[in-house]
Specification:
2 copies of one chain form a homodimer.
Chain A: E1 3-5, E2 10-13, E3 32-36, H1 40-43, H2 46-56, E4 61-64, H3 73-85, E5 90-95, H4 97-109, E6 131-135, E7 147-152, E8 157-162, E9 170-173, H5 183-201, H6 208-234, H7 242-262, H8 266-278, H9 282-300, H10 302-311, H11 317-328, H12 336-347, H13 350-353, H14 361-371
Parallel strand pairs in A: 2-9, 3-4, 3-5, 5-6, 6-9
Antiparallel strand pairs in A: 7-8
Helix pairs in contact in A: 3-4, 5-6, 5-7, 5-9, 6-7, 8-9, 8-12, 9-10, 9-11, 9-14, 12-14
Chain lengths: 374, 374
């Protein structure tokens, strides 16, 4: 069995890590394009910190703040054109998964001409603009992966660009940017990270490194869940102290390192349809499906499921399902027609081939149905 | 607290991983210098596999096989001159720690002119020859670190070059090259890896990533110890099956990733004198000292020591000491004069500043004395 490890991003963690390492931007280039969404990076202070750091080392910059949730192909081409027209030679992405995923595609498209038809081919010249990434949610792990996931309207789903070129050069992890996230966003993004760690252990490419990181990530997340449930119950908006926020950000980073090695599994491939067609937020979509998939694994490979459940101090997958149910609250409606359509799409994805326990189309239909049973 | 993660080496693990990835050598350069010791790489088949792979992709190569155990500064300058004279543009190091450490220094010195007085300064031009590393022992972890440790006769110790330039580009981990190592070499190199993982957890730079990897590494090693003791008792030469050899090689790789983040502690700084002056093998030197240092930590920070001991299923450091005693057998003699001399040297090293529990010179003297008590 051949196994690989590669994750070349330089990760810097801690309070004020951008201000304390502003000289690193000099190593990336002479003119920055800040890629972000319309609002959150301004609200949480991350964009201001990046601007201040760039100004302190005399690097001019532009801002492309048009990245929407689940960014489209058109959006990243627009950003790349803007970068090229203004001769930005490195990218700083600030935000949750959407600005980071867009930032990677923009860094690639600004360095070379790639036709839309070849965007997901993986065949690129070996060049890309250097990237510094600042996650402002704790979920996606995109700051340490080689994936850029874009909304692909032609394929009616989310599609990944996967290339080692897309690993950010530097990631700055400062938990204070996640401090004011509301409880719902906190839960959904946390579940995304949890899903990465669990799916990593269920991947055919799981290795000793990815498992070591996944176990720690899962444990850190599970330790934060009681306070999450408490906050959900009490309706408090700001939930956590900084120490917990740091735990969640680090858990998300570890889970990102995991999927950089393993890729994701059936859960993500099924979840993409829920996001594309039913506008269910990505982390929530994974959370809705993760319990049923682990139950399937428990039937076919009880030892594998057991190793994951053990890290959570659970003895059976049903307990994990119950925990997810509490975190996710009331479930959406889904029709048999929708289930058939989404299952047909999911079974064709490479994520299914990446599973240790490969579900059949029938399994996927059953999982969708059970996942939405109230 | 600022924390960092960086380890950009591409690691490829598995049986026949060199033959199955020979095209990767093309990405490194046009003419290879193989750096190795006089014999072992020939005996274990690694050099033959590298030659075959290079020939299959039409890359010419030369061999520098003059690396001795604990390589000297003179040795790496000789290797670099040989590389430059022959216009080798990348380095393949094959062996235990010695050829790998030498290979890194040669890659650096062949890319730029560095006077001997500046060799350990850390101030280099940002260039180095690309490197592919093939470990043939499971202990040093050098294939995934930025350290090149050389015998420094002027300073009468071993001194590290530490630079991010020294991370190998690629590491090939194939456990079959470790299959015929004798039990004593297996034990000493394993203890070196164990020491890296434990010291990583005792380092002031320990992080969530390094701890996750260290815990897994320690557990994998401890799982192999009963068979090691059995082999030691029965006097058998070839001890392990391939699965165990793989476990040890992966544990050593993980422990290398750990010290790439954390550096080493008091144990390594004390051990260098034992190797330099008393010719005690590096892994054995660490093993002799590790138990007493963990006992000191247990006194000052019981929780920290407890977390490490827990991963080994021990409740106190004395149990770990007993295990090491069994693995190490009869101990060398050491005089009070030697202890005073080595302690004076150790207290000045940066490894001491890197400890969570910083020993005083008096502590170091006591640890040396207790470590050699029969």
């Amino acid at each position: 069995m051949m196994n690989k490890y590669y994750m070349p991003t330089r990760v810097i963690m801690g309070n004020d890590c951008i201000a304390m390492n502003s000289e690193l931007f000099i190593t990336l280039g002479k003119k920055a394009l800040i890629v972000t969404g319309a609002q959150s990076a301004k609200r949480n202070g991350a964009e201001k910190d990046v601007r201040t750091a760039l100004e302190s080392v005399g690097i001019p910059y532009l801002v492309f703040d048009k990245v929407m949730s689940n960014p489209t192909i058109a959006c990243v081409y627009e950003g790349a054109t803007f970068a090229k027209e203004n001769r930005a030679d490195f990218i700083i992405a600030i935000g949750g998964g959407s600005p980071m995923d867009a930032g990677k595609a923009i860094a690639l498209l600004a360095s070379q001409d790639i036709m839309e038809g070849s965007l997901f081919s993986g065949n690129y010249e070996k060049k890309v603009l250097p990237m510094a990434f600042v996650p402002t949610t704790a979920g996606t792990g995109s700051e340490v992966t080689q994936y850029s996931i874009l909304t692909n309207n032609k394929a009616q789903t989310k599609t990944s660009i996967a290339s080692d070129l897309l690993f950010p050069t530097i990631a700055f992890l400062d938990a204070k940017y996640t401090e004011h996230l509301g409880i719902i966003t906190t839960i959904y993004t946390t579940i995304d990270a949890l899903s990465h760690a669990v799916e990593g252990m269920l991947s055919a490419r799981a290795s000793i490194v990815s498992d070591a990181l996944a176990v720690t990530s899962i444990q850190m997340i599970i330790n934060c869940v009681p306070d999450m449930l408490q906050a959900l119950k009490s309706g408090s908006k700001v939930v956590f102290n900084m120490k917990q926020r740091e735990q969640l950000l680090q858990a998300s980073f570890l889970a990102g390192m995991v999927i950089a090695q393993t890729g994701t599994t059936a859960v993500h491939s099924m979840g993409y349809s829920l996001t594309y067609f039913k506008n269910i937020e990505h982390g929530r979509a994974n959370g809705l499906l993760l319990g049923e998939y682990l139950k399937l694994v428990e039937k076919v490979q009880p030892d594998l499921a057991g190793r994951i459940l053990e890290t959570m101090n659970f003895s059976e997958a049903e307990q994990f399902q119950e925990l997810l149910n509490k975190l996710l609250g009331e479930k959406e409606e889904i029709s048999s027609e929708e289930i058939r359509q989404y299952s047909k799409m999911a079974i064709q994805t490479k994520n299914i081939a990446n599973c240790v326990v490969k579900p059949t189309e029938e399994d996927i239909i059953t999982m969708f149905a059970l996942s939405f049973t109230k």
